[in-house]
Structure formats: structure tokens, C-alpha cells
Prior knowledge:
With 241 residues, the chain is of the alpha/beta class. It contains 6 helices and 3 strands; from the N terminus they run H-H-H-H-E-E-E-H-H. It folds into 3 domains: 68 residues, no CATH class; 82 residues, no CATH class; 61 residues, no CATH class. Strands 1-2-3 form a 3-stranded parallel beta sheet.
Amino acid sequence: MSQMLEDYLTRVMVYANLPPSHASEVRQELRDHLLEKIKDLKAQGLPEEDAVYQAINAHGHPRVVGYGLRPRFPLVDIRSQGTARGVIAIGPKAVGIFAVGGTAIGVFACGGLALGLVAFGGLGAALLFAFCGMGAAPVAYGGVAVGLTAAGGAACGAAAVGGFAVGLLAEGGRALSAYNQQNAPELLKDLLNLWGNNNHERLGWVTMSLVALLLAVQAVAGVANRRERRRLQQTDPWLQE
């Protein structure tokens, strides 16, 4: 059996990361397929070594093939490259119920670009709540926040509070407001009161709590990514390809 072929299959299965009971079956199926291809190439007059090389090269990069063998939406999917897809997805790009990555899309999304029901990160949009450097959501909080109700360094919304705030009802260092607390509808007052009726101490605690949550999520994702990368490097010295 060609050592080149076995090394290739080993690399593929490392990326596939399948349960041992299933991995051996899948590996044998891949081996049979490649051996058949090698046989056809040899029949065309190629030396065995060239036939093995061409069959492997045509089959695809181990990373691409291995990731393609993973379940469509597993409980946990962690990838060092490409897009992770799972209930818990961690990778450069992530799609899942809980998604953490450079670009994250999920019910709970955390990333440089985060899209979800709840979004945390640098730039984000959410259907419910966003805590981002720049974020848009019904309830938005961050450096620049846009929402039905928003709070942050610069905030824009029906009810907004911040260093610079624009809204139907707005409060803060500099505020452009159509209403004030005396003539504003009760709904606007209730929305503004979500932030503690301009209580800066409460906003400070909210900020610290959300930052702590964000750092904790990023730390867990960082540990998971490092462990995955070490696991791959042990078998795939060409990881940077």
C-alpha cells in the first residue's frame, strides 16, 4: 500500500474528526475509491508513483475533503479555517445557534461582524439586542448604537441616551430630542427607563457585565481554537498551505 496514499487519508480523517466507529468505515471507502482511480491511471501507462500523486491531487486538499465529510450540523463544530457550522460553531466564520468567529451568524452571535437574535462584537445587527462597537437592533448598546431604544457613546433611536443622543426622547451629554420628560408619551419614557432613567451608575454596571460576558465567550472560543489547531498540527505539518 502506498505510504503517500495512507498519509493523505490520515490528514483527511484528522480534518473530518469523525467518531472512531465511523471513521474507519469512511477511510476505507475513500481508500477504495482512490485505489480504483490509481488502477485506471496505471492502465493508461502511468508509473504507480505518478498515478498515486495524480489521484490524490485530483481528489482535493485534505482540509477541503475532510471538512466536507463532517456532519452537516453537528452539536459542536470547531474549524481553524473556513466556515464552522453547528449548534455551537467556532471558527474564522461561524454559523450556528451559538456562533463565535470573525464573522458570526446565529441566534447568539459573537464576532468582528455579528448577525443574530443577540449580537456581540465589533460591528453587529440583531433582531433583539446588540452590544457592539457599532450596532443596530431594537435594543442597541455600544460605541455607536442605533435602535428602537439605544444607549452608548453615540445613540440614535426612538428613545436614546448617550454622550451624543438623537431621538424622539433623548438624554445625555448632548441630546437632540423632540420630547422631554414632561410631554413625552409613556411608551418613550418606558423605553428610556430600560437604561435606568439616565442612571449612569446602572449603565456602568451594564457595561461591565456585558464586557465580562464578551471576554468570557472570546476566551472560551480562543482556547477551543488553539486546541483544534494543535490537534491538526500534530498530524498535518502542512497546515499553512
